[in-house]
TrEMBL record:
Belongs to the bacterial solute-binding protein 8 family. Keywords: DNA-binding, Signal, Transcription, Transcription regulation, Transport. It comes from Cohnella phaseoli. Residues 383-638 form the Fe/B12 periplasmic-binding domain. This is Iron complex transport system substrate-binding protein. It is found in: Cell envelope. GO terms for molecular function: DNA-binding transcription factor activity; sequence-specific DNA binding. GO terms for biological process: iron coordination entity transport. InterPro entries: ABC_transptr_periplasmic_BD (IPR002491), Bact_iron-sidero_bind (IPR051313), Homeodomain-like_sf (IPR009057), HTH_AraC (IPR018060), HTH_AraC-typ_CS (IPR018062), Tscrpt_reg_AraC-type_HTH (IPR020449). GO terms for cellular component: outer membrane-bounded periplasmic space. Residues 172-270 form the HTH araC/xylS-type domain. It comes from the Bacteria.
Amino acid sequence: MNINDLIASWNYASCKVIDIRRITIKAGDSIRSYRVPSSLFLMSIRGNATVHLGQDVYDMQHFTVIHAGKGNVLDIDADMQDLDYYSIYYKGGVQPLAPSDIASRSFDLSYSITPNNPMPLYRIVSEMEKEWGRSNTLTRLRVGALFYQFVYELLHQLPKQGLNSKKRDLATQIATIVHENYAEAMTLETLSESLNYSVSHLSSYFRLRTGISPIDYLIKVRIDQAAKLLLETDATLKEIAAGVGYHDPSYFSRLFKKHRGVSPIRYREVNAKEQKQVDSPPINVEFSIVSSELVRYADDIDNYYHHEGDGEEDLFMFKDSRTTLVSALLLSFILLLSACGTNDALGTTTSQPSPSDAPVSSEQPQTKLVQTINGEIEIPTQPKRIVAGEYLGSLIALGVTPVGTSDHHIKNPYFNQYLKDVENIGDGNGNVEKILSLKPDLIIMDDFYPELNEQMSKIAPTVVIPYASLKTVHEEISFFGELLGQEERAKTWLNEYDNRIAIAKEKVLKVIPADSTFSVIQLDEKEIMAVGADFGKGGQPIYNGFGFKPPADVAAEMADPGWASISAEVLPKYAGDYIILTSDSKKLDELKKDPIWNTLPAIKNDRVFLWTSDRSGYWDPIAILSQTEELAEWLISR
């Protein structure tokens, strides 16, 4: 099936909902030879089943959506538990004035999708079924509107995964759900239910990937949204609080001040002027660098409100602000001429200037087009003022020093020597006001904060690289080498990186048998996690750099999904001959007195490397290289 053709058909669709039902099939029961009387959507909400549509067979599992055309013969066999699903019957056709190449056959196709983000679809369908039961003219109109909304959400997710369901990073799925549902009541329990993971696994994985909890991330997203509403609308505090998921304006005000340093009212007063300049630049100002056509860390317990009232007084009007055109042009010109410094991230000395500092010939192109997940954008060929919300390690490796980066990068101990004059743009991926003040000519972000990225694109060309999409050091460095016109420097850095990793490995394997088993473990107050090769804590050096393996019984689990939240009772199963242990609270002397830990061979033989999360929790290219050499020295000393 061609997805574009399907979307085109729905753009000219004329549909009428015929019936909506919620159906339960008992465990082991089935529906046989049911001839579908009209076009039909099925959406499972609990249980599993095998579905036959003519010659096609589908697995109906966690929130699967199946489409069946009129006249198809449907068979459903429930597995060993009850199957609950919604059925939406509709009559579909195309409008009379539709182009001749648009056919109604799309409504007769059979296909299946297990959406990456099922919650919006579930809410729409459950609301449709509720409205359908009221059975009056106005609610039928509501059902029709919800039906098109359902189809839109389904088609919106189809191009992202195609027809073959592709496993997405769990942290990315959590982030997507938070961004699309931040205004609703949300807990770890509701997140775990929607993604079919336990609370402990979901929370542990997200913290492992991002360094913060899902609830802290939710708070960050809500506060960012509230800040946007404060600057872009004249909504009251009560309206804004409710709009981002807080029913108590007083609680919202305190939380906002904690995260932004000022009250919502003061924030609006101080920042409205700069925001107006971004949203409404003088129409006759043009910049040579771009085309004129270019368009983690609090412990708040969220979702609980203990006070009533409207909080601070409401403010409806912005203060007026004006900037002279001459001053704006002069400032822009000066900033665009300023250059950023360079560093050698491999610790070697070079007298050769960075390409970003080289004179620019009038014949050289000033900009180039790059393809991003948000489409094709135009960026400067030699950016001078880069803001890097993410991927700072690769920039440092290429000798590029940004003017600003995120708080968690500032705290990265492996970056200390490179960030002397770099501004802190805030937690998460930063905040709009600080980034705006830095006057960047290029912004680099991941896709964890899509609303922030949309605002960034109004400030400067913004390259968004999907979170966790660059899988290896080589892939990441090569990508940014091409993006920033630093291909040769990228090759040089990677060659030396490979050489230093090889030297470290050779030294280690001279003293540690290659068949020794290793465990990479994180020990917190409440949980123990065994970590694979892709999540920091030393996994990359141990498994990828040195080539060691985890214990045989857990090798498959450490490969996919790549981590495990475990109890102390099963710790011996996960413990190898050597343990790389991250703990911010425990000392080795304490573990040697523990009745379970002291039975482990690695503890008995003094083969435990203990470090804290502020050193082990990073896995950028610079950190991985440093960690590899640090662990090599320790292993040699054993």
